[in-house]
Amino acid sequence: MDCIMIRDLHLRCVIGIQGWERQTLQDVIISLTLFSDLQQAVGSDRIEDTINYKTLTKKIIRHVEASTHFLVETLAGDIARLALEDHRVQRVKVAVEKPGALRFARSVGVEIERDRSWLPLQS
Description:
It contains three helices and four strands.
């Protein structure tokens, strides 16, 4: 399957379980891999025939900057759901990292992978 990659989207949001994390914007780094059949877009060279990653990224930015989750796992799930709302996305891999969350580590994060069958499970 073909894929579109969005790498190292640097955003800030309220995320974390500590009291100070609930009152201070935290850095997060988000990467996505969108799996889709891109054959039609390859042939047509038309944005209408592919996943508009600019539109999706804007939607993710709005959501992340307004979010107040305790866990990066929950934020990753939200991002996966947003990506799968586009019918062309068959599967998505989402990584959310929190730089500086652990002493001596560049970052800590999670990576999840979801496909369209996961959508009905969401409320």
